[in-house]
Amino acid sequence: MAKPKDKYKVPVLDGKISIPKIVPGATAYEHMIEAQKDDMEALGFPAKLQDGWKAKAIGVFKEILDNNKAVRDYMDICVRCGACTDKCQFFLGTADPNNMPVQRQELMRKVYRYYFTPSGFFKSLSNSQELTEEVLKDWYTYFWQCSECRRCSLYCPYGIDTAEITMAARQIMDSIGLGQKYTTEVIHKVFKIGNNIGIPPAALRNTLDDLEEEIEEEGGKGVKIPMDVEGAEVLLVPPSADFFAMPHMESLKGYAKVFHKAGISYTVSSYASEAGNFGKFIGSYKSTKEINKRIWDEARRLKVKRVIIGECGHAWRAAYNYSNTMNGPFDFLDSKYKQPTHICDFTLGLVKDGVIKLDPSANDDKVVTFHDSCNIARASRMGDFQGGQFTIPRELIKAAANHFVELREGTTKEKTYCCGAGGGLLTEEIMNVRIAGAMPRMQTVKEAVDNHGVNFYALICAICKTQFTKIFPLYGFDEEMVGGIHQLVSNAIVL
Amino acid sequence: MAEFDYNGKKIETDDEGYLQNLGDWDKGLAEVLAKQENVTLTEKHWKLIEWIRDYFQKYQVAPAIKSLTKEVMNLENLPDKKEANKFIYELFPEGPAKQLAKIAGLPKPTGCV
Predict the structure, then answer these.
(1) Domain limits of chain A?
(2) From B71, B72, B112, B113, the catalytic residue
(3) What CATH number does residue B29 fall under?
(4) Do A241 and B113 touch (CB under 8 A)?
């Protein structure tokens, strides 16, 4: 129900996604609020830019090139074919040429050529550039207008993973004391309290009590959300937004009902109360690993048999892709199960095995569509077959609701557009970038609403849920349309 | 980081206007913070400010939006959550996380909210 403010620039939707005429510097004024001293120091970074930052930045750049073969290759192999230029929602929405993926990367490549290639010193020959304060300013502006969604990478004939470049740039900036407040504050909170929001154990228990009461009032008698229970079969790790925000909490109610009905004992944890992992967003291997470790330490402590991750995109990527190499092996868990398992995979399995029953007519008031979230669609998998990350959520929706339509062809599955706020962009100071970045997706939402009467926008990502809840009203749609797949499950499950 | 004078004292806020030292808060300062947000405080605002401050004192975090909605339903005798939500946004047009928390002297809720 956010009111459109005068300062917001909301495009008028005509259903078309067209390539804009470029406007150099269109979003050069956008600026992320810089990180706070105690957050930076807690993460092992200098509090602010200091004398000698340039040499330090080049040193860290060299370390990355030496240790990350992929990034070094990505610096060299781009042939400027331009296939990526019109694939980025931030370019399509802002028209700023520095938001063309190739041009954004060029901000880094020109510095790479200057310091790390033989011809770099001859600026005119190699189009190279020393790392000046002005260049650093551009880095801070434009590497914080990338959501690391990797849509452009999908179309790159060389397979350049542009998110890795954004992460490397942010890593260099953090290491010299130029950090972003939102991500560093959130990571610091996980280290201090256990989750992105900063919910301490007593507050979490209080929230869960309220939620149990609400489930009971709605007819779900005896449905519990246990916390810190040793010996439970499952450790459930949702994004902390599921404990705090709307519509996220509706999905948590869905998970609870599934466990209840299936008769599988589970617990959430006040220590591992966060599936999200903002360490990824700033390219910090150390923070990513440390945040991830909390989940497995807690699984060990609570002596569970399996770990299940809730509805959250980058959380799933971090847990699914990196857990094993960062904090594995998980031989203390039951090898019968995929470790970790996605909640959608878990629930769909129970439906297919007849353990729980869904009555899709409970959602007959809804015409549902599904937005593939980038970190699930393009960066990970679900289940144990190719494309499971596309079919499992869709099958679960279809089991829970009778009316389902796809969004526009070419904007779904691996080709999905980013919500416009992933990768550490879900913060208010760059609201106009978020609005612009959501534009391509909103064009397809308008089409789905106009042509098919879609009134429920199903998601499995906490960032997407928050972003669309804020963005929908600005574009003239009801925020109540936005919800999780387990919100549908919650309505449909026969208790 | 920003700062302003209040009763001869320097009050520090972060870049988004949230109090840096939560101990600085008093009712007069709440009026000043509300003014910065273009919100005129009425008795209805105060009821929520007091409730959310109590909650924060007890739990060291702002309440989940559902708990706030529930409290508003009770306080104002509203029939459902939708009405309660509407009521909250009428008082605090930019939303409870942004304006209610700020005026009540709480830190900004972070994460995916």
Answers:
(1) 37-185, 194-405+454-492
(2) B112
(3) 1.10.10.370
(4) yes
The letter for the amino acid at A115 is: Y
Do strands B2-6 and A482-484 pair parallel, antiparallel, or not at all (unpaired)?
unpaired
* A186–B contact, CB cutoff 8 A: yes
Question: What CA–CA distance (Å, rounded) separates A414 from A392?
Answer: 14
Identify which of A50, A400, A81, A465 has the alpha carbon closest to the alpha carbon of residue A254: A400
Picking from B22, B45, B27, B19, the residue whose alpha carbon sits closest to that of residue B100 is B45
Bridge-based pairing of strands A456-459 and A482-484 is parallel
Enter the DSSP assignment of A365.
T
Give the residues across from A34 on adjacent strands.
Answer: A180
Complex prediction ipTM: 0.93
Give the pLDDT means over successive 10-residue stretches in chain B (113 positions).
90 92 95 95 96 96 92 92 92 91 93 89
Residue range A110-115: mean pLDDT, rounded: 96
pLDDT of residue A1: 36
DSSP string, A461-495: -HHHHHHHHHHHHHTT--GGGEEEHHHHHHHHB--
**Residue B112 domain-assigned?**
no
Q: Is B59's CB within 8 Å of A202's CB?
A: yes
Question: What is the pLDDT, as a whole number, of residue A69?
Answer: 96
Q: A23: which 2 tokens?
A: 């406007």
Cβ of B95 within 8 Å of Cβ of A2? The answer is: yes
Structural domain tally of chain B? 1
List the one residue out of A247, A311, A251 whose CA is nearest residue A481: A247
Decide if B112 is catalytic.
yes
> Are B113 and A244 inside 8 Å of each other by CB?
yes
| B33-63 per-residue burial string, b: 16 or more CB within 10 A, e: under 16 | bbeebebebeeebeebbebbbebbeebebbb
Q: Show the DSSP H helices in A372-461 as ranges.
A: 374-377, 388-400, 431-452
CA distance A455 to A479: 10
Residue B97 belongs to a domain? yes
Q: Which residues pair with A482 in a beta bridge?
A: A457
Which regions of A127-187 does DSSP assign to beta strands (E)? none
For A181-220, the pLDDT digits (tens) are: 999 999 999 999 999 999 999 999 999 999 999 999 999 9
| A214 vs B contacts (CB less than 8 Å) | 66, 70
Nearest CA in chain B to A185: B110
Residue A338: per-residue pLDDT: 94
Quote the domain boundaries for residue B30.
2-103
B113 part of a folded domain: no
Question: Is pLDDT above 70 for A248?
Answer: yes
In this structure, CATH architecture of domain A37-185 = Orthogonal Bundle (1.10)
List chain B residues with CB under 8 Å of A428: 16, 98
